[in-house]
Every structure is written in C-alpha cells, then in structure tokens.
Amino acid sequence: MRLSYARFQPARQGVSRLATFGLAALVALAGMAAPLQSVTAQEKLTPGGGSAVAGQTTDPVVVVTLGSIDQLTRDLNYFSGAIGQPQLGGMFAMMAGTFTQGIDTNQPIGVVVPLIDGAPEPIAMLPTANVKTVLKRMEAQVGPADELDDGTMVIAIGANTVFIRQVGNWAVLARNRSVLDRAPADPSAIIGEMGADFDIGVRLAVQQVPPGMRAALIGQIRQGFDQAMKQQPNADDASLEYAAQSIEQLEQVIDQTEELMIGIDIDSTNRRILLETEFTAVAGTKLARIYEGQKPIPSAYSSVIREDAAGYVHFAGSIGPEALEQAQTSIDGALQMVKSALSQTDKLSEEERAEATDMIRRVVELIMDSAKEGKSDFGALLLTDANKLQFALGSFVSDGGEAASIVKDIAAKVQGHGDAPNFEFDVDNYKGVNMHLISADVPASEDEVQKIFGDQVRVHIGTGPKSLYVALGDASVPLMKQMIDSEGSPVAPSGSTLMQMQVNLMPILQFAQSIENNDAIAAMIDALSRADDAGELRIVSEAIENGQVSRIIVGDGMLQAIGAAARQAQQAKINQGF
Q: What confidence score (pLDDT) does residue 250 get?
C-alpha cells in the first residue's frame, strides 16, 4: 500500500493541510521502510503490552526514527544559518508550528516494521497524549474520523485507510487494524535512543528477514548482474568471473550480517554534521572473523596526526587470514580483468602489453605479500603555508628492495622517451633508507604549477628493508625524514581507532590564495575566520565486536565556507547579468 504524495502538499490552501501532510508522510515513511533490509531494536514488540502470538516474531526488522520536532527545528535553524540560507530554517519552523499542535515536540517520531505472517507491516508512532485533537484539525482535509467499538480511530487518506489507536502518550498508526495489536507498549524504549542521537536514523536487522526472502533478494541481484553483463559489448570470461565473485561476496554479506545502522545528525550543539554507520556480523561466521581480525596495532606513522595539518590520513591495523583469503580472490579476478583489457587495446604492442601486465602483477604481489605479514601501517601528511606546500607519506611493505626494483624497472622501460621524467637512484642513504629521485621539468605555460614547485617537480622516494616513503618537492624531505626517525619506535594505539583522516580547509585555502588570488576563496577564508573550526572534514573508523563503526564529521567551518562560496557564486551570476 502506498500513499499519494501529490494530495498532501503543504500548500497555501490552508494551514490545517500541513497536519494532513505530516500524518500522510509518517504512514508513507512506514510503507517505504518495509521493503528495506531488516533492522533490530532493543525491545521486542509486545501486542498492546501483552504476550505475542505463539511462533510469531514480534521483533522489528526495520526501525526508522526522526528526531523530535524541537530537535529538528534547532538543527535545521543552525544548518540553514551556517550555509547562509536562514530562511530555510524559518520555513520549517513555521510549518512545524502548525503541524505539531497536539504533538509532544520533545519526543522523536518513529516507524517499526515487524514481519507478520512473513510480510512486513509498518507501524508508525506519533508522540501525542490525545490523537483525537490532532485528527480534529484534519477534518477539513480528510473528513471526521470514525471511532470503532474498541476506540480505534479510522481515517481515509486518499484511497487508503489508516487505523489509529491511542497507546499511553503515543498514537500508533497502521494500514491494518489487527497490526495495531502488535504495537510496542512503550515506543520510547525502541526509538528513544536513536531518535535522540540522530535527526534521521535507520536500523536494519538482517537476520530477522526469513532466509527465503534473503535468497529472493540475492536472486534478483544475480539476475540484474547477468542482464547487465549481457549488455556489455566487450564482456569476456574474466569479466564474468569477476562479477560472479562479487556476487558471492555480496551474498556472504547479506547472509552473515547481523545488524546495520545508519544515522544522520545535524548537531547544533556541537555545530557540525555527523554521518555514522555501524555494522556487525553474525558471531562465528566468516564475515565476523574478518572483522575480528582487524584490530588497532602500534604504528610507525602516527606522527602524521597533527593539529596544524592541512590534511592527514593514518591507518594501522592487523589483517586476519579470512580477510587475506577474500582479498586474494578479489585481486586475482581484478588482475585477470586488467590482463584482458590490455590484450584488447591497440595502443600497445604485444611486448608492451606483456610488460605492463607483468609490472601490475609485481605491484599487486608486493601489496599482497605485505598484507600476508598480518598488518597494514600507513600515514600521509599535508602541510601548507603561504607559497609553501609539504607532502610526505610512509608505509609498511614486506620488501622495500622489491619496491625500489619495480621503480628501477619502470625507469629502464621509459628511458629514451622524450617526455619521460629523469630518474636517479641511490643518491643518498638516511638511517638505512635508500633515497631516490624522480624529476620532471615544468613547462613555462604551467605558471601555477611553477609557483608551487618551481621549474621542476621533484619526487623523492625512500626504500627501507620494510618501508616505503614518498616526499613531494624538496621542502617535503624533512617530513619524510621525521617519519623515518619514528619508524623504529612504533606508538601504541589509543582506543579502538583503525583509520582516521582529516582535512582542514583554512590552510589549504590560504595556500591557494597565495598562489592565485580568487574572490570565492577570499570569501571562504573570511567565513572560516569566524567559524568554530578551520573547515574540518573528519573520517574515523573504529573496531567493535564482530564489526566496525565509521563516522564522517563535517565541521562548522566547512559549512560556513560552503555557504560563502555559494553566495559568492550567486553574486557573480548577478554581476554577469548587468
């Protein structure tokens, strides 16, 4: 059953129609949530507070929450102001003020979807102590509500019938009267935590979905892949095999996933936007063992995590045998596809194709051999200042000598080509790390590149027994040497963090402005100077039991900069019109 959105526009025809729109949207949200993969909740659904029918699961497979009206109003007011469009928050506040009369604006709104007789049946939950008051305001749009002998209210929204029942300080809504008996006795116990943490939250419990339904979903995905591959004019055995492996891995994820949660929050208190995902696999499965094999480890490159950085990336974690096995299968398939693609190009000779294939194979083998030592450790750092850019990275590898050999072989093959860069090997040694240099002239026409790097782009490469380093430009060599200095003294992990990445927009914009003056960049710098942070974008992944939590955080400064850039673009268009 689906509702027609066309009939419920919050229009100028009368403010009471907003209430109709809100109620319809809530029921529609429940309808949309039903086909999703499943979700779990903290409390079982108990029919009206009583016991469940024997053999019938009452756990929700999907839980969807919206933050309270007060929370959404605060957050949207902050967000719209941060991006320079405060009228958007004002419009929402005006609409919410009309729609929410009779509703507890301090409580979240939610939808739970249990499976009843094997079919998803959404139940929407609205925080109101007297739903009749809400329905009374809707009479102009849907007519008076009918009341059945057990107190259940019935209204018609378009061609659809909605059954509504008061359960304590909540109203529960469903498309079938009997489904109301499965409503939770205390909706706040199920949706309260996620509704408070996020403006929009979705929790899926895949194992609540019957195996037959999961098999049908996988079958549909397989059919879609098969049809897509048949439409590819150059599809070959390697491509088909790789697609088949991808489907098998997807089937594993669907079969062995315990729970998935996705939450989005415009956090007006901390002045940021948060996107959080939490994934857990079924305990004891291969997928769970893959995640259990990922643990934080001491890192030789944690020095890249610096407050003054324009940006950094760092990850250090163990790698289990199950993850290695799966990665090897994927890489073998990818290599076959690359080999097949190279064989079909007419831009390379047969000898060149063979050389390219062999070089790619060696790089991949080095990556896999490094992973087979049971760990990954990597750090990259970007620092910027007026007219100065520094970038360096360091990584654990199983054989630094092989990394150097690969670069030397590449140099030998491109030697003699007019546009090839210049290679110099073993030009220096720093604490057991051999230093190499790749340089290339910058054409006079590339004036911005020359402002950054000068007449030459110089890339320094360091290869140690178990390490690989890269520094961009002579000014970055000190950063690379700092990484080499720390290689022998790994820093123990703090907490459960596996990976973190951060970008700070202010130093990047200041560097860009020093290279080439730009009005839009100037406007963004001005906005950032008044923001709570330097334009932060942060990504963090943490290990949890049988799974992983990932967060993307967009700081206030980044939002302010985006708003300033948008306003500058709008002003530029206006100026062009005159």
A: 86
